[in-house]
Specification:
- There is one protein chain.
- By secondary structure, the protein is mostly helical.
- The chain contains six helices and three strands, in the order αααααββαβ.
- The protein has three domains: 30 residues, no CATH class; 61 residues, no CATH class; 46 residues, no CATH class.
- The chain is 53% helix and 11% strand.
- A three-stranded mixed β-sheet has the order 1-2-3, with helices on one face.
- Helix 4 crosses helix 6.
Length: 148
C-alpha cells in the first residue's frame, strides 16, 4: 500500500530500508490535513492543553470535549441539510460565531419554549433559522428573526 500511495510499483523483495523510506515519502505526501482539522477542533472546544492535575479530572474534561465535539458535528450536519453552506463551518467558527447569535427565548408557564427570536443583524442568523425551523416546528416552537 505504501508504494501505491507514492505512485510506485511494489518491488519483488523490498529491502527494509526501502520500506522505511517509502513510509517517510508517503507520510510527507499526505499534506497534514488531519492535524490541521484536529487543531481547529481543539481550539474551537478550548481543549488545547492539559489543565487538570488529577488524571480523573483530565479524563472527564476530555470526555466532555468529545461529547461537545460530537454534538456540534451532529448539529452542523443536520443544519447543513437545510443550508449546505453551514457544512463548511469548522468547530471554531461554530462555537465562536454561530453559537453566539444573540436572541430571546419566550417560555410558557410550565417552562417550555414557546418562541425563539434570533438577532437579524447576525450574518448566520438566517441560515440557522432555516436549518432549525423543521426541528422546532415538530415541537410547536416558533422561530423568527428580529431586533435584539
Amino acid at each position: 500500500m505504501l508504494y501505491w500511495l507514492i505512485g510506485q510499483t511494489l518491488p519483488d523483495a523490498p529491502a527494509p530500508e526501502a520500506i522505511l523510506l517509502t513510509a517517510m515519502y508517503a507520510y510527507d505526501r499526505r499534506g497534514g490535513a488531519a492535524e490541521t482539522s484536529i487543531k481547529g477542533s481543539k481550539q474551537g472546544l478550548g481543549i488545547t492543553k492539559r489543565n487538570k492535575q488529577r488524571f480523573a479530572a483530565q479524563e472527564m474534561l476530555i470526555l466532555l470535549g468529545q461529547l461537545a465535539y460530537n454534538l456540534i458535528s451532529w448539529i452542523r450536519q443536520d443544519l447543513a441539510t437545510a443550508r449546505p453552506a453551514l457544512q463548511r463551518l469548522g468547530m471554531l467558527r461554530m462555537v465562536r460565531d454561530a453559537f453566539h447569535i444573540s436572541g430571546q427565548v419566550v417560555l410558557d408557564g410550565q417552562g417550555h419554549i414557546q418562541h425563539i427570536t434570533l438577532n437579524n443583524a447576525h450574518p448566520l442568523a438566517q441560515p440557522f433559522m432555516d436549518g432549525l425551523l423543521c426541528y422546532l416546528a415538530r415541537d410547536g416552537t416558533s422561530l423568527n428573526l428580529g431586533e435584539i
